[in-house]
Design brief:
- This is Chemotaxis protein CheY.
- It holds the Pfam family Response_reg.
- Keywords: Phosphoprotein.
- The protein is 27% helix and 30% strand.
- It is α/β, with parallel strands linked by helices and 249 residues long.
- The protein folds into two domains: 12-105, Thrombin, subunit H; 116-238, Response regulator (Rossmann fold, 3-Layer(aba) Sandwich).
- The strands form two sheets. The chain has a six-stranded antiparallel beta barrel. A five-stranded parallel β-sheet has the order 8-7-9-10-11, with helices on both faces.
- Helix 4 runs parallel beside helix 5.
- It starts with 11 loop residues before the first strand and ends in an 11-residue tail after the last helix.
Amino acid sequence: MAEWKARSSPILRAELRYGELADVACAVDLSEDSVFVVSDVLPPIGARVDLTLSFPRAVRPVNVTAEVREVRLEQGPGVASGFRASFEASAPAERERVSDLVRRMRDTTREIGRKELRVLLVEDNRLVRDMFDYALGKHFAGRECRVRMDHAIDVPTAWLRLHTRHYDLVVVDYHLPDEDGATLIARLRKEPTLAATAVVAISVGNPEVRRATLAAGADLFLKKPLVFRDLFHTLEFVTLDGAVDVPTS
């Protein structure tokens, strides 16, 4: 089997069900034929898994049954465990919904509806903040849409900023000086004016931390170190005017 090579693409939320096992994972490199699911749940090759692909406010849920074709174990920083699932044996209606989603994601005629996007990074590590700033500036250099990033090093500062202006995306580290990131996310989800905000939780690869942030209401959990280009493609995607509406029948 040819070695899988990732392409830069938006990161989707993937709700995975395999027998009695379930996981909220990330889906990357989506095509009409397959998807790579970043997950600690690793079904054997040949297993059939049920996936729900989505991203709040950008991709309405697409349900599909897929077959595991390749399994990858974690190979150190930046190379997470997961599996590639094929849609070749999926029902025709499911394949059509996936194909429609892929076409819409690749539609280069869609434009970001605003000339300025705002991101809030809640992170107390200065090195990570500096890397984020550099990567963000490089990714959006020369584009019509400007992206502004604000920083918060703790929960009180983040809460103040969230009530000062609107953010298109909030990126929250779990390990913060006072309260943890899951506490901030849970509070945000309970606030009517903030509940619909797109939230990505980040941290080192700790299963308990991942479960805590997702249970608190994070849309995605990404392990450090981050693949910035995929995160920024996701930012572009979730801020398009209107959600990607994939027919359900």
